[in-house]
Amino acid sequence: DKAGYKHFMAKEIAEQPTVLADALRGYLEDDRISLPGEELDFTKVERLTLVACGTAFYACLTAKYWFEQLARMPVEVDVASEFRYREPPITPGTVALFVSQSGETADTLAALRYCRDKADKIVSVVNVAESSIARESDLALPIHAGVEVGVASTKAFTCQLNVLLLLALKAAVDRGHMTQEALSETLSALRALPGILNAAMARSDDIERVARQIAEARDVLFLGRGLMYPLALEGALKLKEISYIHAEAYASGELKHGPIALIDKTVPVVVLAPRDALFDKSVSNMQEVMARGGKVLLITDAAGAAEAGQDVWQTIVLPAVPSVLSPLLYAIPAQLLAYHTAIAKGTDVDQPRNLAKSVTVE
Ligand code: M6R
Fold first, then answer.
1. Which of 50, 55, 58, 131 maximizes ligand 1 atoms within 8 Å of its Cβ, making it the mutation to test the pocket?
2. Best probe residue, ligand 1, of 102, 233, 244 (max atoms within 8 Å of C-beta)
3. Which atom from ligand 1 is nearest to the alpha carbon of 152?
4. Active site residue ranges
5. How buried is residue 140: exposed, middle or buried, by Cβ count under 10 Å (0-12/13-18/19+)?
6. Is the shortest distance between the CB of 241 and ligand 1 below 6 Å?
7. Of 9, 1, 28, 7, nearest to 144 (Cα)?
8. Which of 153, 154, 155, 355 to mutate to test the pocket of ligand 1 (most atoms within 8 A of CB)?
9. Distance from the CA of 102 to the center of ligand 1, in angstroms?
10. At 171, which helix (H) or strand (E)?
11. Which end of the chain is more exposed for a tag (fewer CB within 10 A), N or C?
């Protein structure tokens, strides 16, 4: 049931504020993070290995930044199809964590089985609670996104991010890198996030206008730094998946190591850059793009828009949020941009060609 929306994808994008608020309630007892099922004590964990495919992999990549920054934990991230055949050594003290919406992705399940007798603990972050990946884990953490029908993952991504962030915050507190006071502050920002996501949804018409022009492009680049780098990858995946436009993402600092050769006036460059500690660096990368005739679509907050200069082609302004929460917010315009571009191109948004919702064969 599309509940009045034209596509499941539009419905699932719009549901995010509600499902995130519900999901959060499932993990909080007052201002304490409490995991459903068995407790996970991060003081005993030496290393985390995160494994997934596609969008779930980008959620893992985001989590690496969170675990490293907040909890000072060593984290490895890999795509399941590489991980399983590389057969990496898993040393004692490792928790292996698998992220999957369906819980049935063949490569992710095989990677989990590879870790079975090697890791201290197998944890999964899943949407489908009765899935193989959930069943075969020591601890399965539900993301509470509800059924996701659109092949392009949207609400599952933000709900995966939500659980991964809560885990990183718990690790930070367990390991003495975060005070209860700082945790309470972040949790209240997280509780306020659904309202802020609704404000971002209200940019949908602006995004639709830009999307009509993006739909003319043959190639689109996405750039981001820090937490915005995995999100740039996710934005590019979403766009190529449903609009069939060739899209690539790079860490902004990699631009001058090759991709800048692609820039000309036909290549829109989407820059994801809230006004955070890395913003000045992103601005200088943007200037390099604009100096070569590239058209920059800047997604930022009001402070970022004010500082970005006049030459930016288009700007989408989002509310300002604490840096740590920016991936959850910036996912919304990335999804809406892909959605509206696909609509402008007339592609099948919910059932893109060549793709299946659940990849149960390798
Ligand atoms: O069910 P899973 O989360 O394990 O699926 C992983 C990928 O196949 C999935 O995220 C895919 O990349 C999506 N179609 C992206 O929108």
1. 55
2. 102
3. 16
4. 357
5. buried
6. yes
7. 28
8. 153
9. 8
10. helix 155-174
11. N
- The DSSP code for 300 is E
CA of 110 to the centre of ligand 1 (A): 15
pLDDT digits (tens, 9 = 90+) for 163-180: 999 999 999 999 999 999
Residue 138 pLDDT grade (very low, low, confident, very high; cuts 50, 70, 90) = very high
- Rounded to two decimals, the pTM is 0.97
- State the distance from the centre of ligand 1 to the C-alpha of 222, rounded, in angstroms: 20
Using CB atoms within 10 A of its CB, is residue 258 exposed (0-12), middle (13-18) or buried (19+)? exposed
Q: Across the chain, what does the average pLDDT equal?
A: 96
- Decide: helix, strand or coil at residue 320: coil
Q: What is the mean pLDDT of residues 338-361?
A: 91
> Using 50, 70 and 90 to split pLDDT, how confident is the model at 350?
confident
Residue 42 has pLDDT above 90, yes or no: yes
Task: Find, among 158, 167, 196, 189, the residue nearest to 20 by Cα.
Answer: 158
Q: Alpha-carbon distance 260 to 47, whole Å?
A: 36
ipTM over 0.90: yes
Task: Name the percent of the chain lying above pLDDT 90.
Answer: 93
H helices within 202-325, ranges in order? Answer: 204-214, 228-243, 279-291, 302-307
Q: Give residue 199's identity as a one-letter amino acid code.
A: A
